[in-house]
């Protein structure tokens, strides 16, 4: 179970007394200095935006804001500008987290009367699709006042291994196709939900 593995890794890092956690998925390509570049950003939570493993593809990061679903596109222009952008959430494919973040999560939990910050990762089903465990995690960060950032320069060099390697260049080029497909899927879901509601009421 992915959520169980992620919880176990956090527990081991806390027990070990780590200073940082670097989340790095095996199905990505990245430059050898990726850790050093994220660390140099001097942010509590900073990671990479990368293309999803599908065609058409789209980025994983969403714009800053509670419950935001507006996609953040890493473009060549943002990469050349060495931009770092605040986001609502991103994938865990390449993400660096300072361990004091978990102290902040614990303090926030206790202030709300909870014994600890668990769970950190959880899959949620909503509106006909599943919200990933990473989205759940970043929502907890926002609640505790922790900001997440995307490094666009490094993100431009990240590849997500699919049948081919998907990059942000693919996501940017396929932007219109992605949103057209998403709109069709949303309409189909709404139509089916309306039909089901009518059948129940009838």
Oligomer: single chain
Total discrete domains: 1
| SSE succession | HEEHEEHEEHEEHEHEEHH
Percent strand: 15-25%
The CATH architecture classification is: Alpha-Beta Complex
Note poorly predicted spans: none
Helix content: 40-55%
Mean pLDDT: 93
- Put simply, the count of helices is 8
* Total DSSP E strands: 11
The shape is: globular
Major sheet strand order: 1-6-3-9-5-4
Largest sheet properties: 6 strands, mixed
What is the end-to-end distance?
A: 41 Å
Rg value: 18 Å
Structural class: alpha+beta
Give the CATH topology.
Answer: Spore Coat Polysaccharide Biosynthesis Protein SpsA, Chain A
What does this structure look like?
- There is one protein chain.
- The chain is of the alpha+beta class.
- It has a single domain, classed as Spore Coat Polysaccharide Biosynthesis Protein SpsA, Chain A.
- The chain contains eight helices and eleven strands.
- A six-stranded mixed β-sheet has the order 1-6-3-9-5-4, with helices on both faces. It has a three-stranded antiparallel β-sheet with strand order 2-10-11. A two-stranded antiparallel sheet has the order 7-8.
- It is globular and about 60 Å long.
- The termini are far apart.
């Amino acid at each position: 179970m992915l959520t169980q593995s992620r919880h176990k890794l956090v527990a081991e890092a806390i027990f070990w007394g780590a200073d940082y956690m670097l989340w790095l998925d095996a199905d990505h390509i990245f430059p050898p200095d990726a850790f050093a570049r994220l660390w140099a950003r001097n942010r509590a939570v900073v990671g990479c935006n990368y293309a999803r493993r599908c065609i058409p593809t789209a980025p994983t990061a969403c714009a800053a804001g509670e419950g935001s679903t507006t996609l953040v596109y890493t473009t060549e222009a943002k990469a050349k500008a060495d931009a770092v952008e605040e986001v609502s959430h991103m994938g865990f494919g390449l993400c660096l987290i300072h361990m004091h973040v978990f102290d902040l999560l614990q303090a926030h939990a206790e202030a709300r009367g909870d014994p600890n910050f668990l769970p950190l990762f959880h899959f949620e089903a909503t509106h006909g699709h599943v919200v990933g465990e990473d989205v759940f995690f970043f929502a907890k960060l926002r609640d505790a006042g922790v900001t997440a950032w995307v490094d666009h320069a490094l993100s431009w060099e990240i590849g997500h291994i699919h049948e081919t390697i998907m990059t942000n260049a693919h996501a940017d080029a396929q932007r219109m196709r992605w949103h057209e497909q998403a709109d069709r899927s949303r309409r189909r879901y709404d139509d089916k939900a309306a039909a089901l509601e009518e059948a129940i009421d009838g």
